[in-house]
Each structure stands twice: as C-alpha cells, then as structure tokens.
Design a protein that fits this description.
Rossmann fold; 2 domains; two-stranded antiparallel ribbon; 9 strands; binds S-adenosylmethionine; peptide chain release factor N(5)-glutamine methyltransferase; Small_mtfrase_dom
Length: 266
Amino acid sequence: MKALDLFKTLRRSASSDVPDSTIYNLISYVFGVSKIDVALDKDIIVDEGEFRRVIYLLGENVPFAYITGYEAFYGRDFYVLPGVFIPRNETELLVELALKEPFNSFLDFGTGSGAIAISLLLENPKSQGVAVEISHVGQLCTKYNAEKFEVQNRLAIVSTLPENGMFDLIISNPPYVAYELFEEVDYSVKAFEPLQAVFPEDPVLVFRDILTYSLSHLSDAGRVILEIDSYVESDLQKLASSLGFYYQVTKDLSQFDRICILSRSS
Ligand SMILES: C[S@@+](CC[C@H](N)C(=O)[O-])C[C@H]1O[C@@H](n2cnc3c(N)ncnc32)[C@H](O)[C@@H]1O
C-alpha cells in the first residue's frame, strides 16, 4: 500500500472536524507511518485487519485515544483503556499550578488514567502519592501507566479515600458536570466515555466530600487544588468558606473559572 493512500482513506473515514494532525498522529501510533512517509508517498506494509478496524472506529466517531490506546498529557503519552476518562489539555493547568506549591505527599481523587498523579510524581521526584479511583478499569490503567513511567513504588492506588494519611496536596479533577447540562456535552463524551467520570449525582456533594476529607487530612500549610466549571464556582465558594478554607480561582485560556486553590491559612 502507498502511505498517501493510507492517509487519504483515513481522512475520508473521519469526520471533517477532525484535524489532519490527528490523522497523522493516528497513522503514526497505529501503523508506525510518519508524516514524512506520507509526503514521500512511501510503500508501506499495513495489517489488513488493523486497517479495517481503524476505518470502522473512525466512522463511528470513536475518540482517537480509544483507537490508539494513548493520550498525550503534560508532554507524555499515557495509556488510555476504553472505559477510562481521556485526560484533557485543560487539566494540564491543574498540574502546572500544583507544581508551584511545595509538596512531598499528595492525594489525587478520581485519578482515571493516573495522568495527574503520575505527572506530579515525575515532575517532583521526591514526592509520594495516593491515587483514589472507584473504577476498576481506571485503577488498572493507572497501574499500567505507573509501571510504564516507573513510579509504581511511589504511588498507592486505592478505591476509596484512605482513613489514614496527611497530605501536602489534595488534588482532583472530579466528575462535576450536572445532568441538567447533558444535552450540551459533546456526543463522543456521552457515547464513549464513562458517565460516572463526568456526571455525578450532585456536583456540589462531590466537592463537599473532598473538602470535608481535607479538613482532617490536609497538612497545615497544604493546598487543595480542584478543577471546576464556572457554574459550580459560587456554590463551591460558599461551601469552602463555611468549612473555613481560603479560596482563590484561576481562569483558563478561554477565561472560564477553571482551577480553585484552597488552603487553611491565607
Ligand atoms: C473527570 S474524571 C478525571 C480523571 C483524571 N483525574 C483526569 O483528569 O484525566 C473523574 C474520575 O473520578 C472517578 N470517580 C468518580 N466518582 C468517584 C468516587 N466516588 N471515588 C473515586 N473516584 C471516583 C471517575 O471514575 C473518573 O475516573
């Protein structure tokens, strides 16, 4: 087969809003064919079954990460299994802000693929972390990623918030989208990503659980750093002040309230 034919066939199979760069990434991950191979229209050997599978999945709008098995986050490629939330670019801001704070120990609530926790461990080699994830496939994915990046000895993976332990940092990108907003959420999220990763019964209750836990498990100078959406911001602010937390919000590049940093002292 010719590399250009591979590119053109996958381009036609994907929806028009998928950028060419995504198709190039796809053929590189799945078939080991580079953009230069396409430009030079090299002869390539492509597994027929894999070729048909990718065309089918693209036609069904299956997210790129579930086709390749990877998603890039904070400069690294993380394994992502179907059934595990795909880490998002905007969550990199959470990691960036966390790394400005001093910490040795941290807890990541709702770790998903482990992208946040493992990025923190790699960027802060002296740190130790606990990753809390309710989904079994999420725990498995975090374990694979921890092994891939050789941080498994510094990361405990658990299914519920641990009774013991004090943390300098409690971080989370929890499920925070209210079911009232179901219609507004992208089709591919609703069709393919785990709903419990996105829609909680009550978003404010999730934040309340994290903050209540933080009252007894955050070290005195520690920080709670949360990804939020603008519409929960005022409820969260009330909740935080009722529990005695100082509160600060950072906007994302689109000027939406996105990251909330809480502390016990100003
Ligand atoms: C929005 S996803 C974030 C995943 C990952 N931290 C990231 O940013 O890519 C929320 C995660 O929280 C997990 N989760 C939901 N409810 C939970 C609970 N009660 N305890 C632990 N994890 C939970 C979901 O399974 C999902 O993996």
